[in-house]
Amino acid sequence: MRFTKIGIIVVCTIVMVCLCLPPVFGKEPKPKDVTMPETMIISGGVGAASTSTLICLWAVKRINAVYPKIAIRHIPGGNKDGIVKASGGTVGIGKTEVGICKRAWNGLPPEFEGKPLRDARNITCVPTPTRIVIGTLKKRDDIKTAKDLQDKRCGVGMVTSITHVMAEAALGAYGITPESIKAKGGIWSYGKWSQQFDMLSAGTLDCVIMGTPQPYSPALTVDVTKGIKLVPWGDEGIAAQQKLYPDNPVRTIPANVYTGQPKPVKAFGTRNLLAVHKDMPDDVAYNILYALFQDGGKSYREVAATFKDLDVLAESLLSEPIPWHPGAAAYWRDRGTMK
């Protein structure tokens, strides 16, 4: 076979262009021709700069960029709120968490009192930079592992956060509960992590169990003045948490994130999802996803500095604690990520 000089140049050009193209997830879907709702409520997040709030505000911005006529309102809410309201149809989208979703679907106590919530449907999973770990002052030689929290004054974040739920699951491996801590003179205190780190610095708390990106700014403030260390959950604690919440991944926080942390520490990650009511029209659910991911997930990595390494498209189908909405399934099939 004889190749001309021009033919060789054309072939080489095509190869170089293909090699330089970014990876794609199938063919880019086109929006459905359907009338979108005039109003929409998105529930999630319990603090102004919490990870969940940032995700919800990202969703608001993305949907409004494509459908500016929708009057979208964001309301605060914990992970339980998200699944309850999505299942009840009182919000358009509920931001929640995979472990809570599974418990809601099965009606597990104590959160759901034996009453299964079966009317919510998943439209996408969303990764987060959150890591759930124990922080204390590096001078606290009496707190080396999670076992040492049996009589300590513990800050555990907001009551609506998943953090204290995961912590209770892990501490259960050592026979430690919030009630047993209180019985031995300790504290199991709910509140904002920023305020709880102030209390740690002041000596009114012994540790803070935080569910935040790492490093966490208020913890770094304490670290500069007094030094912070991360306390390992221990193999038994991690195994106990994974048994109850296997959808929540175990992540490693590298060494030296804080001055008192010379070694890597294993922590619980969180995997969130966006849920809608089962009766949402299929094409509306499809178009919501079209709006969210029209840019291929680029805007998601720009939500905050700690999101820069997250790939929301790659993790969009990683968990299925509740059934997929048919409109969402159609979208992901069109993207080539779902069979």
- Major sheet: 10 strands, mixed
Distance between the termini: 41 Å
State the CATH superfamily name of the largest domain.
Answer: Periplasmic binding protein-like II
Helix and strand sequence: HEHEHEHEEHHEHEHEHEEHHH
The first-level CATH class name of the largest domain: Alpha Beta
In total, how many domains does the architecture comprise? Answer: 2
Beta strands, count: 10
Low-confidence parts lasting 5 or more residues at pLDDT below 50?
Answer: 5-25
Q: Can you give the mean pLDDT? A: 91
How much of the sequence is in beta strands?
15-25%
CATH topology description of the largest domain: D-Maltodextrin-Binding Protein, domain 2
**What general outline do the C-alpha atoms trace?**
globular
The portion of residues assigned to helices is 25-40%
Q: Specify Rg, calculated over alpha carbons.
A: 23 Å
What would you call the structural class? alpha/beta
Counted by DSSP, the helix tally is: 12
Q: CATH architecture of the largest domain, please? A: 3-Layer(aba) Sandwich
